[in-house]
Amino acid sequence: MFKQQFSDASDACALAEAIVDTVREPLLVLDHDLRVIAASRSFYLTFSAAPEDVLGQLFYELDDGAWNIPALKSWLSQIFSNTGALHDFEVEHVFPAVGPRAMRLNARQVSYTVGSHTTILLGLEDVTSERAMARRNEELLRQKDMLLEEFQHRVGNSLAIIASIISLKARSVGSEEARRHLDDARDRVISFANIQQSLHTSARSGVIALGPHFARLCQAISQSMIADQQRTRIETRGDGQATTSEAESLGLIVTELVINSLKHAFPEDTANGLITVIYESSGAGWTLSVSDNGTGKLQVSGRPKGGLGTGIIMALAKQLGAEVTTVPGRPGTIVSVRHAAVATCDDLTGASVPSAPAIRSRTESRAGSTAGSRTVSRS
Prior knowledge:
Layout: H1 2-5, H2 9-22, E1 27-31, E2 36-39, H3 41-46, H4 62-65, H5 70-77, E3 85-95, E4 99-111, E5 118-126, H6 128-172, H7 176-202, E6 207-209, H8 210-225, E7 232-237, E8 241-243, H9 244-264, E9 273-282, E10 285-292, E11 299-300, E12 303-304, H10 308-319, E13 323-328, E14 333-339, H11 345-348, H12 359-366, E15 373-378
Parallel strand pairs: 7-9
Antiparallel strand pairs: 1-2, 1-5, 3-4, 4-5, 6-8, 7-15, 9-10, 10-14, 11-12, 13-14
């Protein structure tokens, strides 16, 4: 189209000069020796330069050698190695006439049908403000992380103080029932502190790896509740990820179930107590089970006898869209929290939907596996 419109060389030159002079970003036209043939008006304005100081000069000698940068030379030399075009090379430099600037360079080689000479179009985009904003954002994120660290530290200290106050109060009351309720409240404060600490140290991306999360929780519970003379251990198995909110709810469920087993499943003379936390996922469905080899759990009318802890677990499971089932083990008790995957079109057209495997058989089939498992013990 251009050939038909501008068959005369002088007309084509006039068009080229008009294009160079019109572009808003600084633009240089260089010959094969990298001498400046033409420069846009925006180049002169951006770098406070005059045509007599630019035209005919080597690019690397412009502005008192401000562009004489080894990395830039290496980058620009690639255009002669059949590359043809180069993109997004950034230079941060203090230019004598305009001060510190961040420039993004793009270059393209132009070859002609007549003759063997070539020219290079070199575009320069001023990204100083963009880079300054990026640095400000990084600084704001750093300050946010510092504030979050301080907040987490203060929350942890406050929860520890609350737990200590409750413990002191429990020792001073005369009623055994009141003491038991205060001890339960203290344990829940401690468990919440453990969950907050685990979530804080897991990931800041909004996605939590559940295996390490549960392992840290059980480690904290073991250190605070299993006496040195007790021979009881806690194992965690499974992998998977969840959002921070889901991980918090699952962590509270695990904490309640593990604490309940430690309190009620094992007599003081238990020799080889074991609590196992297993998380399994398949697509959008998942199952969390906590089992122990203790004395078993009292059943009333086919349902577990529960108090505040049971109510907390049921409420959290409801938030997660999951169901809670409790079955006797041989020995001990197995509590399962299961979230079923949403039915697909195949399910609705007659394809069979696999049922959840029996919790006991799943636990037994994985009892000998060590892959992905973590053990917490105090012996």
